[in-house]
Amino acid sequence: MTRLAPFHVGIVGLALMAFSGHAHAATVCNTGPPPSTPLSGTIVGGVVVNAGNFCILGGANVSGGVVVNPGGILIACGSTINGGFRSNGAAELIFGAEEIDCAGDVINGGVQISNTGPGIIGPDAPAVALERSTLNGAVHLSGIKGRIAVASNRIAGGLFCANNVFDVEDEMMPNLITGRVTCKFGEGE
User: Fold this and answer.
1) In which domain, by residue range, is 98 found?
2) Is residue 77 part of a domain?
3) Which of 146, 166, 177, 178 shows the smallest number of beta carbons within 10 Å?
4) Is position 101 within any domain?
5) CA dihedral 151, 147, 114, 158 (to 10 degrees)
């Protein structure tokens, strides 16, 4: 067994060298607030929104998922995200909001949003808005400190809530949810 160890190390090293040229680094998004130009087109390797960055995805086709780090802001309109969405500590997250004429999105993979808000765009705007979108994976919302709008979506995989300050609002536009739902819906139910 020990005589084969250098052989295995060599094979692993060759494999890493061969595939390292094909890896794509994540695109860091900081487009700035509207009327800035959204990030669009095909994006390989995922998107990252860092603290203090304001990112708008408009008609983007992202492979590799999207991550919003603490303090980041994301508005996604008419975009497809392959690889899921994850955020912990974002300032604000808006997907497909009808109020700002933002087309719905498609997210292939799970959605995990935690410790977001209370929101900075406006006093009536939700800290998290998931609207008019197709979400192909479970949606987990936990520790959200501001309003939450989850309206007119198709969610395959369930909708799970824990330790949020407000109940979820569906804005009189119910969702089609396949899977378990643990969220309590408030106004607009």
Assistant:
1) 25-178
2) yes
3) 178
4) yes
5) -30
HSE (side-chain half, CA atoms, 13 Å) at 39? 27
User: What is the number of structural domains in the chain?
Assistant: 1
**Residue 14 domain flag:** no
Residue 53 forms part of a structural domain: yes
Q: What is the mean pLDDT of the chain?
A: 87
Considering only CA atoms, which of 47, 46, 142 is closest in space to residue 89? 142
How far, in Å, CA of 44 to CA of 41, rounded?
10
Does the pLDDT value for residue 171 go beyond 90? no
pLDDT band at 68 (very low <50, low <70, confident <90, very high): very high
User: What number of CA atoms fall less than 13 Å from residue 37's CA on the CB side?
Assistant: 2
pLDDT tops 70 at residue 86 = yes
Separation of alpha carbons 60 and 79, rounded Å:
5
Beta bridge partners of 82: 63, 108
Nearest to 77 by CA among 100, 55, 97, 103: 103
